[in-house]
Amino acid sequence: MKESEDISALRLKLHEIQVEHRDLDEIIERLLQTPPHDDLMLRRLKKRKLLLKDRIAILERMIEPDIPA
């Protein structure tokens, strides 16, 4: 039962991070469309987005690990 609770918690965290990643994507797009750009803010947002992308990949591997053939 503990394992299913752990997987559920991981799935919840994964969903939260995916939502934040998607929100950052929208914010970055809006900033790019409304000059003048705040380059420092854009760099920070893009860096955060990449960090979230890495965390998403880690959580996905934890939830469904690759099984060698």
Largest sheet: none
Between the first and last Cα atoms, what is the distance in angstroms? 28 Å
Specify the number of helices: 2
What structural class should be given to the helix and strand makeup?
mainly alpha
Instruction: Give the ordered list of helices and strands.
Output: HH
Protein model, in words:
This protein has 69 residues and is mostly helical. It has one domain. 83% of the residues lie in helices and 0% in strands. Helix 1 packs antiparallel against helix 2.
Keywords:
69 residues; single chain
Secondary structure elements and their pairing?
Elements: H1 2-33, H2 39-63
What is the structure about, briefly put?
This protein has 69 residues and is mainly alpha-helical.
